[in-house]
Amino acid sequence: MATVNYRSLAEGIVREVGGEDNIVSAAHCATRLRLKLRDESKADKAAVEKLPGVITVMQAGGQYQVVVGNNVPSVYAELGRITKLGGDEASTDGDDAPKGSLFNRFIDLVSSIIQPIIWPLAAAGLLKAFLSMAVQFGWLNVESQTYVILAAAADSIFYFLPLFLAITAARWFKANQFTSMAIAGALVYPSIVALGAAGEPVSFAGLPVVMMNYTSSVIPIIVAVWLQGYLERFLNKVLPSALRNFTTPLLTILIMVPLVLMTVGPITTFIAQAISSGVNAVFGFAPWLAGAILGGFWQVFVLFGLHWGLIPIITNDLGTQGYSLLTGPLLSAVLAQAAATLAVFVRTRNTARRQVAGPAALSGFLAGITEPGIYGVNLPLKKPFYFGIAGGVVGGAIAAIGGSAANSFVFPSLLSIPAFTQVGNFTLQMIGTTAAVVIAFTLTFLFGPREAEAPVAAQPGETTPPAPSTNSSLADLGAPATGTSSGATAATATLPTGTATATEVAGTVEILAPVDGTAVALAEVPDKVFASEAMGKGLGIVPTDGHVYAPISGTVKAAMKSGHAYGIKSPGGVEVLVHIGIDTVQLGGRGFSPAVSRGDHVKAGDLLAVVDLDVVAEAGYDPTTLVVITNTAQLTGVVPTAQGTVTHGQPAVTVQI
Q1: Which of 28, 547, 564, 579 is an active site residue?
Q2: Which residues are within 8 A (CB) of 343 and not within 5 positions of it... i.e. 6 or more apart?
Q3: 340: in domain
Q4: Residues 6+ apart with CB under 8 A from 484
Q5: Is residue 252, in this structure, part of any structural domain at all?
Q6: By C-alpha distance, which of 423, 574, 425 is closest to 505?
Q7: Where among 82, 99, 126 does a domain terminate?
Q8: What's the confidence (pLDDT) of residue 312?
Q9: Is residue 615 situated within a structural domain?
Q10: pLDDT in tens, 170-197
Q11: How far apart are the first and last CA of the chain?
C-alpha cells in the first residue's frame, strides 16, 4: 500500500461504485471503507477489487465495504477532499471535537492542542525557576554568558510557542503542519517583532496593518491554522494535480500571513487597548475593582495575548514614576493559579497528572511561569482554573486597596516579592497574596475533580477492576480519547505471574494475547475478510473479560475514534491490529473506553481499552477480539500458537522477522 496513490484510489472507488450520486454516506473502520449505496447494482465489484490498494470487497449489513488495510484513514481523507461525503480531513466537527457548551469546547480545544508539549513546557518552566533562584541568591550573574545560554534554553519554548502550537494545531485541524510552521514562523520573525515594537505605522500593499507581539501567544496561531485548513482543502479541490503540491502551500502562506497580521493583530490590539484604558480608568475611582479585574483575569488576558496591551503602560509607569499600580494585583493572579495546580498535585490520584502538576506548581511559585500549570492542569480540568481566578479576584482587590506595586519589571512570583516592598502597603499586599493562595488551594482541594488512577489488571485470585470512565488515564490530560497524538505513556497493566513478555530477539517475536478468553482459529471468525487472512494471519479470542491489553511493545499507529480497534507497530517493524469485536464500529464508541491515543508508545501489557461486553452482546454484535499481523507478507513466518483457554499476556502468535 506504500506505493499506492490515495487520491487516485479514492477517485477510482467513487467511479466504480456508480459515482458520488450513488453514495448515500461514507465511513471507515480500522481496515475498510464502509459505503452505503443507493443502488448496489450500479457498483462494479470486480472493477473495485482490481484497483491498486484494494484487498477485497465485502457486501454485508447493508454496507458496501471496500477493504484497503491499515491506510484506510488516508484513503478516507482523500474521499473527503474530492467529494462532499466528508472524510477525516474534511471536517473538524467529528468525534474528536470537544463536546459541551461553546466555552467548554473552546477550553477543551486549546487544552488538547497544547497538551502534547506540556512536558517540555513543564521542564522549561522548572529551569526558569532554578535560574530565577540562582540570580536572586547571587549564584549567577545575568550578564554572564552562562546565564545567557541557560536563559535561551529555558525561554525558547515560551518565546516560540506559536511554532510548537502550529504543529499540534495542524494535526487537530488536518492542515499541513510544515505550512503551519511557516505561518507561525512569520508571526515571530525578528523583523515582524521589531515592527511591532517600533510603534510606527505599518502597511502592506497600501493597507494599514496594526502590529502586535505574537511571541508566546496561543490563540492567534490556533485561529490561523484553523483557517489554513479550510483554505488548503479549497485549493486542493480547485488546483490542477500537476501544480497542487507546491502551489497549495505557496498560496496558503502568501494569503494567511498577511491575513493574520491584518485581522488578528487589529482585533487583539483593539480589545487589549480597551481593557487597558478601562482598567486604568477604574483605578481612578475604585482601585479595589481594578485590582479584582487584574487579579482575576490576568491569566485569561495572557491566554488571548491581550496582556500585551497593558505591558506598555506598565513599562511607561516604571520609567516615569518608578512603579506601576497595575503590577500589584498580578502577584495574586499568578500565585493563585500556582496554588490551584499544587492542590491538584496533592489531590489527584492520576499519576500522569501529578507528574505534570508537581513541577508546574514549583515553576509557578518560584518563577511566575504558569503556562505548564494552566495548560497542562488547570485549564483541562476547568474547576482549578476557575478557583484560581476566584483567588486572584480577592487577592488582587486587597493588594490594590493598599496601593501596592512593583518598583521594577519582574515576573510575579515568590522570588520577586522584594520588588513589592517599597511602594504602597506591603502588609496588605501579603494579606491579599496569602488570601489568593489559600482560596485557590482550598477550593481546588475540596471541590476540584479527584481523578482516579488508571486501572491495573487483576492478579491471579483478585477480582477484576472496574472499567475506567473516559475521564481517566490519558483523557485526563485534556487530549481527545483517540485520534490525537498525546505524547504521554499509557497506563501499565501488571501481567499475571509467569506470563511471557513480547520480545524481539534472534528474529523471533512473541505476540501476546490481548484479552482473557478462548482462542479460535482466524478461519472460524464470522467475518470473511479476516477469516480469509486477506488482512494477514493471526487468531481470534472470544473474550471473558472486557479489559484489552497491548499484545506487543511499540507505537500506536492507529486508534479508531469508536475505540474498537488499535494498530501497533513494534520497533522491529511488526504491525499488529487488535480489533475488538465484529462490526462493533457500528456502536459508534458506545461501551468502549479507550486508554491510549494514536502516537502513544506502549509496552506489552499496557491497557489499550475497556469494553462493556454486555453492551456489545445486547446490540447483537460478536465480541470476538482479533489479533492480526497486518504485514504478514513482509515477514518470514506467522504462526498462531494459542489454543483453548488463554490469559492476557500469554504468547498467542509467534512471528519470524
Answers
A1: 579
A2: 384, 440, 441, 442, 444, 445, 448
A3: no
A4: 96, 112, 171, 172, 597, 598, 599
A5: no
A6: 574
A7: 82
A8: 67
A9: yes
A10: 888 888 889 999 999 999 999 988 887 7
A11: 19
Total count of domains within the chain: 2
Q: How far apart are CA 340 and CA 478, in angstroms?
A: 17
Strand positions, DSSP E, 14-150: 23-28, 32-37, 56-60, 63-67
Laid out side by side, the sheet with 645-646 consists of 601-602, 554-559, 565-569, 575-580, 625-629, 537-543, 517-521, 645-646
Give the CATH number of the domain where residue 64 resides: 3.30.1360.60
Q: Are 106 and 374 in contact (CB under 8 A)?
A: no
Q: Would you state the pLDDT for residue 277?
A: 77
To which residue does cell 479595589 refer?
288
C-alpha cell at 224: 490561523
Cβ contacts of 245 within 8 Å, gap of 6 or more: none
579 catalytic? Reply is yes
Structural domain ending residue among the three candidates 53, 82, 111: 82
pLDDT band of residue 61 (cuts 50, 70, 90) is: low
- Nine cell digits for residue 549: 491489553
C-alpha cell of 313? 503602560
Local structure of residue 457 (DSSP, 8 states): P
pLDDT band at 464 (very low <50, low <70, confident <90, very high): very low
**Residue 180 near residue 113 (C-beta atoms within 8 A):** no
Q: Judge whether 564 counts as a catalytic residue.
A: no
Is 601 a member of any domain? yes
| Mean pLDDT (whole number) for 153-173 | 88
Cα angle vertex 419, ends 413, 422, to 5°?
A: 140
Q: Are strands 547-549 and 537-543 parallel, antiparallel or unpaired?
A: unpaired
Residue 535 belongs to a domain with what CATH number? 2.70.70.10
**Looking at 28, 29, 307, 547, which residue is catalytic?**
29
Range of the domain at 541: 473-484+497-656
Residue in this structure with the C-alpha cell 454486555, named with its chain if needed = 614
Q: Are 11 and 33 in contact (CB under 8 A)?
A: no
Given a contact cutoff of 8 angstroms between Cβ atoms, the answer to whether 609 and 594 are in contact is yes
Contacts of 316 (CB under 8 A, 6+ apart): none
The phi and psi torsions of 387 (rounded to 5 degrees) equal -65, -35
The SS3 call for residue 213 is coil
Grid cell at residue 560: 479508531
Where do we find the cell 502468535? 653
Mean pLDDT check: name the lowest of 189-203, 249-263, 385-399, 546-560: 189-203
